[in-house]
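[Target chain]
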Amino acid sequence: MSEFEASRDVSAELARWLSYLGAERRMAAKTLDSYRRDVAQFLGFLAEYLGGAPTLKQLANLTPADVRAFMAARRSEGTGSRSLMRTLAGIRSFARFLERKGKGKVAALTAVRAPRVPKPLPKPLAVSAAVQITAADLREGEAREPWIIARDAAVLALLYGSGLRLSEALGLKRSDVCPDTEALVVTGKGNKTRMVPVLPQVAKAIADYVTLCPFQLPADGPLFIGERGGPLSPRIVQLTMARLRGALGLADSATPHALRHSFATHLLARGGDLRSIQELLGHASLSTTQIYTAVDTERLLEVYASAHPRAR
């Protein structure tokens, strides 16, 4: 919309608000355009809904039902929850500006809940891809020091083999791991500790790295270190994963955290108990872990649709 469908008093405050966002909040031009468009849509709806360009007084007298009517209208036009949530945020920003300037409080906007945006399902790797990525021999021939290749393989093996977060793996001390380690005590979110199993393959990957590492690894120092001997940066692991997914032709969703998702999904697909998986992942709530049941069901349906003779 090129112009706001609003009364003179509302139009004047809109101009001041946009100027404030640009000059004092230093918002980018594209962000300002988005905010302007969001408020224009709301005012355009109100002009038709109320039978005339809305005034400041009419904005202050809006009811939650009026705001819900606007949201319903946008829904009927095919607007998704994420776009609608952003639109509502822009309108609320304008309403807060009016209140700060003493131009009235649009209470209806705070009384209406923003639409819920469904969380996207985790995107685990296929078993074969996860196994390949955690194997050091995938990177044979790279112009990298053997100990660095072994280090990266050990980190990725921990993410997939033990379901660790990247921060948890990089937070391990040298003293946390010994040659016959079968389990690790990991410090997760909120400083909560949990015990996770270490598969023999994972223990071997860690041992190979420690053997090849040219630096001394003090017991109270980090287990995984960078090229110059300091703590290993998460960014290095992310870049390594990007190279590996490129070599295997995997999607951009194949990140270090996707290995943790793969750990949980593959365990569940093979009959793992949901409560046990919750404890292994360190989730505070079982509902957080239950998202993997949806992933597992989705994959089963995909297999059914592609393989069953009567699925088409």
